[in-house]
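User: Could you check the structure of this?
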Amino acid sequence: MPIRVNQNLIMETLNENWGLFCSKLKKVKQTKNGIEALCPSHNDKSPSLTASYTKEKILFMCQAGCSFESVVSALGMEPNDFFAPELPAPPKKKVAKKTTTKKIIKKKSKSKK
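Assistant: Sure, the predicted C-alpha cells are below.
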C-alpha cells in the first residue's frame, strides 16, 4: 500500500518557516524575486541579505559573505527550518531469492555422494 503524504502540509510548514524567517529580519523589502533585508549576522547598514523560497527550501544569501550557519544562528532558527520536511521512505519490498537450476543440480549431486 503506497504511503500518502499531504503535499499541502509540507508546503504549509515551509510557508510558516518563511513567515518566521521574514518576521525576524529588519528593513524587509519585497523584490521581484523575493525579499531583501538587513543581514542579522553582521552590523548591516544597508540591506545585504536577499531571500526567496521554493516548494523545497528557503534560499538566502548575504552579499557581504556571511555563512548559512551564522545567519541561521543569528535568527535563532535551526538549519532544518529552511528545508521542506523529508518524505518518509517507502517500505522496501522483500524479493524472493531465486535459486537457479544449476544450484539445485549441484545440491542433489552432493547429497547422492
